[in-house]
Amino acid sequence: MSGNLNSVAHLVEVVSPQNGIDPVLSEQDNPWLAVEENLLSEGNSISPDLGVSFAEPLSDPKVIDGIVVSSDASQDLDVAHRETEHGEQFVTVLGSKDSPSALAYELDLPDEAQLKQLHDGSIDIIAPVDTEVSLPGEDERIEDAATAIIGNEITSLDDLDNLTDEQIEQLAAVPEAETKTVTENQRIGTIEAPWAVDAKGQPVGTAYSIDGNTLVQTVEIQADTAFPVVADPSFSWWVEKGTKCALGIGTLAFFGYGKIAVALGKLVVKMRNASAASKLGKAYAAWKKLGTSNSSRFSELVKQIKSLASLVIQKGGKSAFAKHKAKSKKAAASIAFLKEGGQVIGSIFGIGACIDMVKAK
Is the pLDDT reported for residue 37 higher than 60? Predict the structure, then answer.
């Protein structure tokens, strides 16, 4: 089969659904996909934190229905690479007994990342994740500063709409909370349990081994194994991104009104003073589409990010953004707000994980 790239792409489509893989096939299926031939051919990952590539040199790849297919005729080997709902997938086709039974994949991992093999054959990717937390007493200081500016009348988000421009400027001038960095080991990705199947549809024994940052999938070829054999490692990045964003936005929703007032003051002043063509200026335009007042915009932002994070957890990255954006103008504005506001918004509201999620889409 080596070299017959259309046949390989078709085989991938037929076999993968039987093993629980939901593909993202083409731009027609998902307008956010926008397959880049040069990007995928270099083995780059859809996640900026993680990368994976087939270790052996292969022929120039071709994109067929959103599947990037390469070959090595000397080893009777074909490799297909595509995005899935929750990450990406490599499907390797062993054409004959001359094909290698040990398939190596190079992983590009964050510093100090570890691979933890689980009983079901899957592998968790664990890495140190830095989180900024307020020092003791800092949240209370900000609440007290806000109370000194706006009094004790702020008992709901609606009350924030009564702030004067002078108060907003004063709130924006309140020093941000001093923080410390807390580093915790967290799961940032998963390599799903491997599978392999022969030409008769019979399962073929297969397992992973780890050598540094190299993942090796060994396929147990037997005398009665019918070729071609299809083997697969799949990588999930998106569930962890959505979960961390959901946790961040959950914390945001429980801010005290004083802290929310200070955060809104800082955000509004920064965006309002930015040029319309700048990223913050574009974020401000998206912010105004979320509602008619700062309080309604804040409430809508929390609602929309919760919805987006939930979709990412359920559906994966690419489909989640497409589905969320299509819901409404406010849903689309929330994505634009996070994208254009970037780390400024992330630091003010403490939702850096949501910013990272949007950057990775």
Answer: no
